[in-house]
Amino acid sequence: MSQLSDAAFVAAKKHLVGGVNSPVRAFGAVGGTPVFAERGEGPYLYDIEDKRYVDYLLSWGPLIWGHAHPSIIAKVTEAARKGTSFGLPTLLETQMAALVSELVPSVEIVRMVNSGTEATMSALRLARAYTGRDYIVKFEGCYHGHADSLLVKAGSGVATLGLPDSPGVPRGATETTLTAPYNDLEAVKALFLAQGEQIAAVIVEPVAGNMGCVLPKPGFLSGLRTLTEDYGALLIMDEVMTGFRVALGGGQERFGIRPDLTTMGKIIGGGLPVGAYGGPREIMQRIAPEGQVYQAGTLSGNPLAMSAGLVTLQMLRDGGKALYEGLESYGRQLVETFVSAGNKEGIPVYGHAIGGMFGLFFHAGPVFDYGDTMAANRQTYARFFQNMLAQGVLLAPSQLETGFVSAMHGPAELAITQEAIERAMASLG
Ligand code: KE4
Q: What pLDDT is stored for residue 1 in this prediction?
């Protein structure tokens, strides 16, 4: 990185903890100075030195329409001219919620919040209230945001930084959090056998995107659905990352599993801060003001965020299956180049793509759980990342994260990326 970015990082660290507003942006796992973004244009991001990158970080998932899509910018600008927030109901929020229910039929009624963390935190509170039970089950390496009870064997930045689950979280907040390896249905069955009557919910990423990109084994998700039904627990699908990304209706559409509650984020806001949770009215009506489960937010359903989210989802609906087939085809070609280039150099590599997300591992594979991803060579990934960055391709700055494709990535960007992969892999050999 050059002097401008180094100086920017020094200045940032004077005023912001670690120089960032979210730990993973500090590039701790890959070393060096983080990229300071200046602007974006479709599939490209430009840093403060006006260096151009083909962007596969895409703000950690939200930008399925790439940077500064004209339709999104126009809608946000139009909304901003009317004011930025009202603290009162608006028609936009109703339109947005109706569209979410149309695209995700299991979500009969919605509550908008401002982040994925708020969505999962609220969904768990609701599940505990609805069932009258306290225990929850999450999976090692899955990340559902930074709410206390979910910071147990969490993925994403927690795993990347190798933090003990997290200081500052009182034991009382996590002693009712049970964990199992992802894809290990027998382990979940054992938890239910032992404490099934006390388990309020299982929360799962339908595709795990916070320990690298890990696919569910056949039968895993349907097994969770059966188990939770058998024991009267709720199945919460955390679709903050997979929602509107692995299919228009998210993981639940892709894998044909109907959860009890769904949490959303990222794409739903089109790059502005939006989270959401929802499900059948019979469960959701326990949320205040209809019910007694309290959850609130000053800027929830913000009109600028709703405007960005609404047009984002409308364009995805209009794009339909062809759009998702295109996203997946692009990802598969990128992964195929990664694997063939690694094999050519005799470097253990493994990867896969699903919808608009992909995983690249320096590991012989297969990769089915957190143990597998932790065995991947993160030092090699860091060297690969830095070489790709130098060639103008921005990947996720951690082996334990996922890459994203936008609808604006096309043949030209793929060619640039494939060439860069071959060069980067040769530099490792
Ligand atoms: P936010 O609170 O960051 O909006 O969402 C939390 C969250 C919940 N559920 C899933 C499945 C998620 O992937 C996330 C957030 N993902 C990380 C990326 N791995 C956000 C990046 C960051 O922490 O800066």
A: 59
Q: Is the CB of 279 under 6 A from ligand 1?
A: no
Query: Is 0.85 topped by the overall pTM?
Result: yes
For ligand 1, the distance from its centroid to the CA atom of residue 267, given in whole angstroms, is 12
Question: What amino acid occupies position 284?
Answer: M
CA pair distance 141, 370, nearest whole angstrom: 5
Distance CA 317, CA 234 (A): 28
Contact 185, 228 (CB under 8 A): no
Q: Give 274-311 pLDDT, tens digit per residue.
A: 999 999 999 999 999 999 999 999 999 999 999 999 99
209 lines ligand 1 (CB under 6 A): yes
Q: Which atom of ligand 1 is nearest to the CA of 242?
A: 11
The string of pLDDT tens digits covering residues 18-49 is 999 999 999 999 999 999 999 999 999 999 99
- pLDDT number for residue 164: 60
Per the annotation, the verdict on 266 as an active-site residue is yes
Q: Is 143 a catalytic residue?
A: yes
Q: Considering the domain 70-315, what is its CATH architecture?
A: 3-Layer(aba) Sandwich (3.40)
**255: alpha, beta or left? (left if phi > 0; alpha if psi -120 to 50):** alpha
**Domain definitions of the chain by residue range:** 3-68+320-428, 70-315
Q: Which residue has the tokens 């932790």?
A: 374
CATH 3.90.1150.10 for domain 3-68+320-428, yes or no, is: yes
* CA dist., res. 114 & res. 118, Å (int): 7
